[in-house]
Amino acid sequence: MAGMTSTARPHLNRRLSEFGTTIFAEMSALAVATGSINLGQGFPDTDGPEEVREAAVRALRDGRGNQYPPGPGVPELRTAVAAHQLRRYGLAYDPDSEVLVTAGATEAIAAALLALLEPGDEVVALEPYYDSYAASIAMAGGRRVPVTLRPDGGRFRLDLDEMRAAVTDRTRLLLINTPHNPTGTVLTRAELAAIAALAVERDLLVVTDEVYEHLVFDEAEHLPLAAFPGMRERTVTIGSAGKTFSFTGWKVGWVTSSPELVSAVRSAKQFLTYVASGPFQYAVAEALALPDSYFDGFRQDMRARRDILAEGLTRAGFEVYRPAGTYFITTDIRPLGEKDGFSFCRALPERAGVVAIPNAVFYDDREAGSPFVRFAFCKREEVLREAAERLRRL
After folding, report:
1. What is the SS3 assignment for the chain?
2. With pLDDT > 90 as the criterion, what percentage of the chain qualifies?
């Protein structure tokens, strides 16, 4: 009949058919509907430094960034990113050719994978992984090959032999995340050196997501993979202002790499957002120049919040993997007599008035992730204490 459309073919293309509404949207809606404390999605419930917010207001009023900023990002921010990498890690990057500003780390991940993968290329990624990794690999036509971090001695550890075995002649790149979301693992110098040696030996590209670089605790140390021998020219490093300065809504991220790799990523990025976050770029440039006391204080504050929630979760009966980095705690629900993270998280708002995320959404092997549940501790201390008190009902 005229005007009818065929329903034989699904509307969503098959590369994205496994990706529906994210678990974060589902659980955040559940938090609103039940009036629960939302420890699911990883965003702070307070703003970052007042002087950084005022820098954004000043840029708006001065007319800086209200129109399209330059495609690679405003020069002030690219210069600030390069200065940050040099000051913190001794990595020298040319602001004009080796730094690219993106609409948050999420766009940086998508642009890098769209730019660097051909259909059929394999990507070795640490599992559990941030959900946009899987979607971006799929959009690029690649194939993800998970290497699973497993609990061992109070932390989730990488099996380097398993990683080496995962690399084949079809492997194009390694996708590394440290500090690691959701497990809170921070890869050690020895682990990173082994990854670097593997990449050099097999001539692989590496995309490394380091958005939690300033959130490492206790004896852990963040070490950029690009600083290891043979890695600078093959590594695309991704950073973000949202996690470091608690302005996640501004969506300001960046890529640092060789001119050739930055040019490739920019070629994809320009057809995603083209540009974004104009006035906020100027504010983030000022934020990156804050003294070490800001970064030290931020880390100490988050460590205190981590400890409040970790102790509350332990008292409630969870097995707690105290994170060395990020602002997430992974727990095992089996000591509570539970084994299905999805069912547990969907019932938790009614049972205890708290929302969390089932880690299984970050696994290809859903069974391997089934007993693990993630809580975010980037909330006010009084909120975390109230959540801990509610969880004692379990």
Report:
1. CCCCCCCCCCCCCHHHCCCCCCHHHHHHHHHHHHCCEECCCCCCCCCCCHHHHHHHHHHHHCCCCCCCCCCCCCHHHHHHHHHHHHHHHCCCCCCCCCEEEECHHHHHHHHHHHHHCCCCCEEEEEECCCHHHHHHHHHCCCEEEEEECEEECCEEECCHHHHHHHCCCCEEEEEEECCCCCCCCCCCHHHHHHHHHHHHHCCCEEEEECCCCCCECCCCCCCCHHHCCCCCCCEEEEEEHHHHHCCHHHCCEEEECCHHHHHHHHHHHCCCCCCCCHHHHHHHHHHHCCCHHHHHHHHHHHHHHHHHHHHHHHHHCCEEECCCECCEEEEECHHHCCCCHHHHHHHHHHHHCEECEEHHHHCCCHHHHCCEEEEECCCCHHHHHHHHHHHCCC
2. 91
- 373-394: per-residue pLDDT in tens? 999 999 999 999 999 999 998 8
Contacts of residue 47, defined as CB under 8 A and 6 or more positions apart, other chains included, come to 53, 246, 247
Q: Is the peptide bond before 95 cis (omega within 30 degrees of 0)?
A: no
Residue 20: its pLDDT value, please?
79
Q: 282: which residues sit within 8 A by CB, 6+ positions away?
A: 55, 56, 59, 64, 65, 74, 76, 77
What integer is the mean pLDDT of 180-199? Answer: 98
